[in-house]
Amino acid sequence: MITITRYYYLFTLILLIVYLVMNNLPERCGDKWCDYEDNGLLYSLQKGLRIGQIAYKHHRTIGAINSRIKKIAKDMIKKNENIEDIMDATKLSKETIQQLINENKNPKMMTNGSWNKKKVSNKEQHIQNMKDELFMMKYGYWVKTKDTLEDLDREYELKKFKLQRGHPSQFKYISKSKYPDMILQKIDEPLQFDYENIDINKLGGNQISIHDTLDGNYILYTYTKYIIDYQPNSKHNGGPISSDQLYKYDLIDKQLEIKIKSLESMIFLFENM
């Protein structure tokens, strides 16, 4: 009888502990992450908030925040982003990012006394990188030339950077907008977004405006041809992008990033054939 009583009290204590734990979990614990929440997480990291503060802000556990940061880093690794850019966006150490990179690598295997070449685990992504550049060359692309909320945030971050005695030429802005900088789509195909509460209007033949009724943001996309070598009077550059917009939105740098990824993918695939 004494033994049964002890087990009863032990079982009751376990139930009490489980109840207390479950009722003290953050509100969004276990909920699926959304794009806007990822953007908010990256924004908080850029502002220098601690993991505990970010967890409180997002109503999630510290472990969930750390896991999500690593998930974002892994996604950036799959897109062949530079380690420095991943470090800057996620605030993870170089050693941690290198560990994540190593986790994605497949070890070599020995068969019949000879080493096999490593398996191309992200072959599809490398092929897509080359297809992206080819598409831009053949059909041009849409570039975001205005994003009211992002423009305000960019100006704020630049002013803060200057106050820290940083040279403007070294300023690198990390976008927090849910609207992509570039869209690879033909000029005669309508742009589509999986967002609610937005009004899309076509302005002439080469511009699309978006009004986000949720936050009042105004976005403008402009179609342009592939920029071979930017010279205002060059016949290669018949697109409507002005020199000011070109500098502001770093079109040449963005194209260069895609070209670098394309060439790296080409080398990677040939080495692993």
How many beta-strand segments? 7
Average pLDDT level: 75
Strand content: 5-15%
Q: Order of strands side by side in the largest beta sheet?
A: 4-3-7-6-5
Question: How far is it from the N-terminal to the C-terminal residue, by CA?
Answer: 73 Å
Q: What about the largest sheet?
A: 5 strands, antiparallel
SSE series: HHHHHHEEHEHEEEEHH
Total separate domains: 2
Number of helices: 10
- In the predicted model, the low-confidence regions spanning at least 5 consecutive residues are 106-120, 232-238
Q: In one word, what is the shape?
A: globular
Report Rg.
25 Å
Secondary structure class reads alpha+beta
Q: Percent range for helical residues? A: 40-55%
Summarize the topology:
Elements: H1 2-23, H2 35-46, H3 51-58, H4 62-78, H5 83-90, H6 94-104, E1 110-111, E2 114-115, H7 123-139, E3 141-147, H8 148-163, E4 182-183, E5 198-203, E6 207-212, E7 217-224, H9 243-248, H10 251-271
Antiparallel strand pairs: 1-2, 3-4, 3-7, 5-6, 6-7
Helix pairs in contact: 3-4, 4-5, 7-10
Key structural traits:
273 residues; alpha+beta; 2 domains; five-stranded antiparallel β-sheet; two-stranded antiparallel sheet; globular
Short description:
Helix content is 51%, strand content 12%. With 273 residues, it is α+β, with helices and mostly antiparallel strands.
Task: Please explain how this structure is put together.
With 273 residues, the chain is of the alpha+beta class. It folds into 2 domains: 2-104, no CATH class; 123-271, no CATH class. 51% of the residues lie in helices and 12% in strands. The protein has 10 helices and 7 strands. The strands form 2 sheets. It has a 5-stranded antiparallel sheet. It has a two-stranded antiparallel ribbon with strand order 1-2. β1 (110-111) and β2 form a beta hairpin. The longest helix is centred in the first third of the chain and has 22 residues, at 2-23. The N and C termini lie far apart (73 Å). The model is unreliable at 106-120 and 232-238 (pLDDT under 50).
